[in-house]
Amino acid sequence: MLSEERRREILELLQTEGRVLVTDLAKRFKTSLITIRKDLEYLHAEGQLERTHGGALPVRTGALKDVSVHEKARLHRSEKLHIAAAAAEMIREGQVIILDSGTTTSSIARACQAAIKLDTAPASTIGVIASAFGGRCWFATFS
User: Fold this and answer.
1) Tens of pLDDT along 15-58?
2) Are 53 and 85 members of one domain?
3) Domain that holds residue 128
4) Are residues 82 and 50 part of one domain?
5) What does residue 68 show for φ and ψ, rounded to 5 degrees?
6) Which of 6, 8, 14, 32 has its CA 20 to 30 A from that of 58?
7) Beta strand 55-57 with 20-21: parallel, antiparallel or unpaired?
8) Using an 8 Å Cβ cutoff, are 33 and 23 in contact?
9) What is the C-alpha to C-alpha distance for residues 54 and 70, in angstroms, rounded to an integer?
10) Contacts for 120 with CB less than 8 Å, ≥ 6 apart
């Protein structure tokens, strides 16, 4: 059996069974534990599975794969800055706005602080970030 064929079968097993174990795979394919470990490492490096001690699990997707705030802030950065600039143009001093948590709303808070003084009542860490850019923060309203 070619290594690519074995790796494809490993992925099929992973999909149907939800996990694979190195020892089981070695028996199934009549090959060494080292060969299976190398296959799993290769598939992990390709982003096709999550390597664990003694085996592998399917790649986490959706809500299970949560990237950091810093990574989220880098994603679609130019679009977020465009949205933030447009939103900041609509907001006038003295108006009350509510910003939920998120990297786009964080960009809006930064864009607003350049034009007007912000008073924030944070419901999240985004409010704390906004206050760091020159606004005032009412800490009693944390939720």
Assistant:
1) 889 899 999 999 999 999 999 999 999 999 998 999 999 999 99
2) no
3) 69-141
4) no
5) -70, 160
6) 32
7) antiparallel
8) yes
9) 32
10) 109, 127, 130, 131, 135, 136, 137, 138
Cα of 48 vs its chain's centroid, Å:
17
**If you count them, how many residues does the chain have?**
143
Alpha helices by DSSP H, listed for 1-143, are: 3-17, 22-29, 33-45, 69-74, 77-90, 103-115, 125-132
Q: How confident is the model at residue 130 (pLDDT cuts 50, 70, 90)?
A: low
Tell me which of 22, 48, 64 is where a domain ends.
64
- pLDDT tens profile 64-92: 555 567 777 777 888 989 998 998 888 88
Q: Name the burial class of residue 1, with classes exposed (0-12), middle (13-18) and buried (19+) by CB atoms within 10 angstroms of its CB.
A: exposed
